[in-house]
Amino acid sequence: GAVVSQHPSRVICKSGTSVKIECRSLDFQATTMFWYRQFPKQSLMLMATSNEGSKATYEQGVEKDKFLINHASLTLSTLTVTSAHPEDSSFYICSASSGQHYGYTFGSGTRLTVV
Amino acid sequence: TQLLEQSPQFLSIQEGENLTVYCNSSSVFSSLQWYRQEPGEGPVLLVTVVTGGEVKKLKRLTFQFGDARKDSSLHITAAQPGDTGLYLCAGERNNNDMRFGAGTRLTVKP
Question: By C-alpha distance, which of A102, A22, A80 is closest to B95?
Answer without folding.
Answer: A102
